[in-house]
Amino acid sequence: MPVSVQIKCINTFRRAHPCRKISDIGGFTDRQWKISVHDAIDHIESGAWEFFVMVGAERRRVVVASLDGRKYLKAEGDDEAPETLLALPQCRDADYWTLG
Fold it and tell me: How much is the pLDDT for 92?
């Protein structure tokens, strides 16, 4: 059974295409955490972790999608672009630790 973790913030690259903008995801468990999108994709695909975001009172699972052979993250219910994740605030620089 995968560990379920809520994403509460992101960091972005300055790239034109929205599917390639997110560099890191982060949140809070017993302390702040942040990992790269690449590592998050590995955790999801291995079945070790699952991630979700809250949109109001609705919980949306974060899934791995692909565009032109490149994997990225988006919330269920988003079209191609990861609009739900891009609407999250930027992760502030702090004492972060990585998951898993």
Answer: 81
Cβ burial, residue 91 (10 Å; 0-12/13-18/19+): buried
Supply 46's token pair. 């291995």
The whole-angstrom separation of Cα 75 and Cα 82 is: 6
* CA geometry: angle 11, 15, 69, nearest 5 deg: 95
Query: Which position has the token pair 């929205």?
Result: 18
Are residues 22 and 15 in contact, defined by beta-carbon separation less than 8 angstroms?
no
Residues of the chain with pLDDT under 70: 16, 94-100
CA angle 84, 87, 89 (to 5 degrees): 130
User: Which of 78, 47, 46 lies closest to 62 in space, CA to CA?
Assistant: 78
Give the up-direction half-sphere exposure of residue 100: CA atoms within 13 A in the CB hemisphere.
Answer: 18
Contacts of 93 (CB under 8 A, 6+ apart): none
Note if the pTM is more than 0.90.
Answer: no
Q: How many residues does the chain have?
A: 100
